[in-house]
Design brief:
Largest sheet: 10 strands, mixed
Number of helices: 13
Radius of gyration: 20 Å
Mean pLDDT: 96
Strand order of the largest sheet: 5-4-6-7-1-8-14-13-9-10
Strand content: 15-25%
Low-confidence stretches: none
Order of helices and strands: EHEHEHEHHHEHEHEHEHEHEHHEEEE
Number of strands: 14
């Protein structure tokens, strides 16, 4: 099988609008979670979330009129793609003779929510003739990779993956498989999400999934693995990576940031929202990733945990890690960057893959902030409150979603 390397990365998220800015914030333990004014104005029981600020879509979407024809999650994806593409040193558009070996697979959760609901208001208040002709392109998920394919001339695989909070990891894993099997040489993959509409927040809140106890202290709201955790914090963002066949990348002198060596996935087949007992589905996905990477559990140094800050998820993920890693679990270092970004839903896997590669490159581990009260059910080393210097060789990134979707990636230091 062909080897797959990472040659470019881009991120837009609550802690920064580029990789360097976001990483600096993480290592400093700075939260990007704050008060969401439009939730507060609508009287929601939850008013804290992780928003992207100061993004100028016209800087990377041309012509400028196209900005208002796209939903916000497309703006976020285009921004992350522009950074990744530039770092990879690829031409402005893929050459025609190579275009059929280049593609885009993007994970999403909700799609076009703001655009859709704004047009619902237009329909109700102004009538059907005033509904935008760009409504459908703004609300169908495959237009996220579609816009990227048009922008960069990618004529190979082009589709979206929707598996809730596992979407970003599934997209990266499928792109990885595409390259390994010879269907592509270059793939742009990851996840994007912008579901900060009050309707989505109200739905999550009413199903008792969100933290509602820290409206007066937003930066303390996301508390993965802490005994006092009481729900996740919604966020938005995008994290995209350029995956490339190793020899193809070497031939053109591309920067090689890391190697993607393992992808595992599974289904809990258990419950709409709750994880299977003991994290059995998560266990199978981690084992599958290790098997594909031809690694022993003791080869993993660090895990970027799913760690959502919900009571069941964090305890179940911990149980699954104990089951898979055995005695090595006590030697592992883990952290949940969601403690600072919030849960980016469909974008989580893409953003956290970027952070996983950064940890390999920089020899640093970001902390899990707001870890104050240990939970007997969560008894691993979660890199509490302060980042660490640590040279790692292999890292695992976990993503688990509603409906029992599980997807796990393993990255190694650059060959």
């Amino acid at each position: 099988m062909r080897r797959v390397v990472v040659t470019g990365m881009g991120v837009v998220c609550p802690v920064g609008n580029c990789v360097q800015q976001a990483w600096s914030a993480l290592m400093a333990g700075r939260s990007g979670i704050g008060t969401v004014s439009r939730w507060q104005e609508r009287g929601l029981a939850v008013t804290v979330g992780g928003e992207v600020h100061n993004l100028q879509p016209q800087d990377f979407i041309q012509p400028p009129k196209d900005v208002r024809r796209m939903d916000r999650l497309m703006h976020l994806a285009m921004a992350a793609a522009a950074e990744a593409w530039q770092q990879a040193g690829l031409p402005d558009k893929i050459a025609p003779q190579q275009a059929e070996k280049a593609g885009a697979i993007i994970g999403v959760g909700f799609v076009g929510l703001d655009f859709l609901l704004n047009m619902q208001d237009v329909l109700n208040q102004q009538g059907p003739q005033r509904v935008s002709p760009f409504l459908v392109p703004a609300m169908i998920s495959n237009l996220v990779p579609g816009h990227l394919s048009i922008r960069y001339g990618l004529k190979g695989g082009n589709w979206s993956v929707a598996s809730a909070c596992a979407s970003g990891n599934h997209a990266l894993g499928e792109a990885f498989s595409h390259i390994r099997q010879g269907h592509a040489d270059v793939m742009l993959a990851g996840g994007a999400e912008s579901a900060m509409h009050p309707l989505a927040a109200a739905g999550f809140c009413n199903m008792k999934a969100l933290c509602t106890s820290k409206n007066d202290a937003p930066q303390q709201a996301s508390r993965p693995f802490d005994r006092e955790r009481d729900g996740f914090v919604m966020g938005e963002g995008a994290g995209l990576l350029i995956l490339e066949e190793y020899k193809h990348a070497k031939k053109r002198g591309a920067p090689i940031l890391a190697e993607l060596v393992g992808y595992g996935f599974s289904s809990d087949a258990y419950h709409v929202t709750a994880p299977s007992p003991g994290g059995q589905g998560a266990q199978r996905a981690m084992i599958a990733a290790l098997q594909q990477a031809k690694m022993d559990p003791k080869d993993i140094d660090y895990i970027n945990a799913h760690g959502t800050s919900t009571p069941y998820n964090d305890a179940t993920e911990t149980q699954a890690i104990h089951a898979v890693f055995g005695s090595h679990a006590s030697k592992l270092q883990l952290s949940s960057t969601k403690s600072m970004t919030g849960h980016l839903l469909g974008a989580a896997g893409g953003v956290e893959a970027v952070f996983s590669v950064q940890s390999l490159q920089r020899g640093e581990l970001p902390p899990t902030i707001n870890y104050q009260t240990p939970d007997p059910e969560c008894d691993l080393d979660y890199v509490p409150n302060e980042g660490r210097q640590c040279r790692t060789q292999a890292v695992m990134s976990n993503s688990f979603g509603f409906g029992g979707s599980n997807a796990v990636l393993i990255f190694c230091r650059a060959p």
